[in-house]
Amino acid sequence: WYAKRFLHPDIVAAYDYIFIWDEDLGVEHFNASRYIQLVKKHGLEISQPGLDNVGLTWQMTKRLGDKEIHKETVEQPGYCSDPKLPPCAAPPQNGIAVAHDLGQSAIYAAFIASKCGCRNLFVEIMAPVFSRDAWRCVWHMIQNDLIHGWGLDFALRRCVEPAHEKIGVVDSEWIEHKVIPSLGNQGHAENGKAAWVGVRERCRNEWDIFRSRFEDADKAYLAQNGEG
Q: Which residues pair with 176 in a beta bridge?
């Protein structure tokens, strides 16, 4: 919600790239100027630095030591509920739309339908970097009432075209995830549950809400275009 409120695309329009990072990242091996050079060189609109093995959730985001960047990989067994969806793969989108273009609600306008399958990549919401144009689209997908942002990274592909060429991980400028809990250590235990359990449950609930809203937006878009 902080980014939604304070980082409106018009406010940050003077910047070529927007970094939206967690607070527990080590940057000892990261140089922002070299990172931007590589992003421009490889045409990445949505990216993130590669991660070392500590605090790693997805193989997609793991740093590959012999590459400048990578755009695809093989995910860990059991991590892909659908081999055609992120973080394993995803369909490229047919275009980009934002609310002011269609005059619709933000979540509705951000949806672009597609039926063809193609190899793609995903970056984690932990340390994404957006181009100015990509951020204008992503900003419209952020939901004001959802705090944690879970699920947003699985929808980022909707904001660039073709996604499998414009989303990638920069390996030669990498970061460390320190895995320092913040929200998880706040609050009080309730009903015998530790505070971090309640935070994690809210994260998952918000992910379900976000996914449900996108499913509704998908159906509305298809219905509007006679495909529902």
A: 26
Instruction: List alpha helices for 122-191, DSSP H.
Output: 132-141, 163-166
Q: Once rounded to an integer, what is the mean pLDDT over residues 5-15?
A: 95
Query: How far, CA to CA in Å, does 108 sit from each of 117, 144, 152, 167?
Result: 22, 14, 15, 22
206 in Cβ contact with 148 (< 8 Å): yes
Q: How far apart are CA 112 and CA 95, in angstroms?
A: 6
What's residue 208's pLDDT? 92
In degrees, rounded to 5, the angle at the alpha carbon of residue 144 between the alpha carbons of residues 123 and 50 is 15
Q: Do residues 143 and 107 make contact, with C-beta atoms less than 8 angstroms apart?
A: yes
The C-alpha angle 6, 24, 61, rounded to 5 degrees, equals 95
167 and 120 Cβ atoms separated by less than 8 Å: yes
Residue 177 near residue 51 (C-beta atoms within 8 A): yes
Question: Cα 2 vs. chain centroid, distance in angstroms?
Answer: 16
Omega within 30 of 0 (cis) for the link into 162:
yes
Cα three-residue angle 1-217-8, rounded to 5 degrees: 30
- Copy the structure tokens of residue 55: 């605090």
Band of the pLDDT at 55, cuts 50, 70, 90?
Answer: low
What are the CA-CA distances from residue 138 to residues 34, 58, 152, 170 (Å)?
A: 24, 21, 9, 20
**Highest-confidence segment of 52-61, 162-171, 178-187, 190-199:** 162-171
pLDDT-derived band at 91 (thresholds 50, 70, 90) equals very low
